[in-house]
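Exam revision sheet. Question 4 asks you to relate a sequence to its structure. Input first:
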Amino acid sequence: MDSARSPIPAAATGVGSVPAGAEPPTVGMPSTTATITVSTIGLVAVGVYVGAQVISQVTSLKIGRVFGRAVDMGTFIYPITFTLRDVVHKALGRAAARTAIWTSAGVNLFLAAYLAWTSRVESDPSWGLGDEYSAVLGPIWRIVFASILAMVVAETVDTEVYHWFVTRVTTRYQWLRVLVSNAVSVPLDNLIFAVGAFGALPFLSGALPWDAVWDIFLVNLVIKGLVSICSLPFIYVTKDQHLAEA
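Answer key, structure tokens:
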């Protein structure tokens, strides 16, 4: 028999016989190569999502007056993150959206811990803003934990509502999938934060009167709802790429 036309013994190569017409594998190298393709828009969306979370966390330290009502200034950025989470979900899949949520929570917790440490470090005498830095940026842990808890719960619910809508209702009307998921998650986030950060709860100090808590809830809900609606067009920045994992 012509040895040039006979199969290569498996014992000699360790990779089995080579089918006719196929390129023989390179000895010592894997027979297959995994290719990972990640959407550029998906990566940008993750970065902007985490960045917007951090920006809203820091700017919420300023309580401003808008139309005569007290509002934390992070309220104008934070609602956009719900639509950005939908973009991540659309571009990279549900698992990536969940990862972005927990990554953002970790970054915000680290930010608060780092600010707490730096606010305690003795200021150089030549720099006269040490007390102001500590007063403004030193975290109030009740508000920090309420904010992170509200974000994780609400954004996770947003993920599941989006998943339900895409897999059980329709893949059309993309603006509607965002509107429905945000309509559930934004009020939930607002409720957990307002009550957790300011409500009169057992073993927690720094509570406000309940009428003030509900006023914060209602004012923030209106603003967050309007900002969320304005952010709906963001969902069209990318095509559906992971419907199988939606």
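Marking note for examiners. Residues 141-169 form the longest helix (29 residues).
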